[in-house]
Amino acid sequence: MTTTRLAVVTGGIGGIGSAICVRLAQDGHRVVATYHPSEQAKAEEWAAEMSQQGYQIGVAGGDVSSAEDAARMMAHIQEEFGDIDILVNCAGITRDATMKRMEAKNWDLVITTNLNSAFYVTKPVWEGMLERGYGRIINISSLNGQRGQFGQANYSAAKAGMHGLTMTLAQEGAAKGITVNTVSPGYVKTAMTDAIREDIREGIIATLPMKRMALPEEIASAVSFLAAEQQAYITGANIPLNGGFFMH
Hints:
alpha/beta
């Protein structure tokens, strides 16, 4: 039987993040979704929509690309909601360009938002997990962190780095009841991919062995599995959810 835990999902009001929040709530956990301060109105509207669907999900604003603001946000969550048992690092952005055209500011922005944030958000809860002898951390990486992607040097490097963090923390937390794992989705059907020009989108789908993109709920299902108390012996793993597009 699963005990109710407090789960925090960074970037929780996005397409994949929303699905993860809903699934963890369905699993019986208390859930808090984080959002960038610039999206406060959107977050409040999202929380109201979740409530109408029967999910009482808390929201907390903070800039995860800032060590100081991430620490402030996590302290606020722990003060208001309690000890954090499950952390899903899902926040991320893209600023695509070939190496020839990539500006240093967009390299820095993606590395900071996608990779540094995982450290900035995890650090404030890590000691508490060690002291309590329990924790589940799931880092949402990407297929492109495993195979690379033309025009995504910044994004691919950040996502590959997330799994490096996973493997190290998995070793540091193993004897203390903390598991740390990575989930690496491939192409996922979200508002972002729906906005891709139809002929390009169909061309992408044609390359996928399953001839479709993943659903956000399928990513959430993997997170739910790794977040469960029963998965106490899976740690340091990188779970691919790419429909067979890349096998490693």
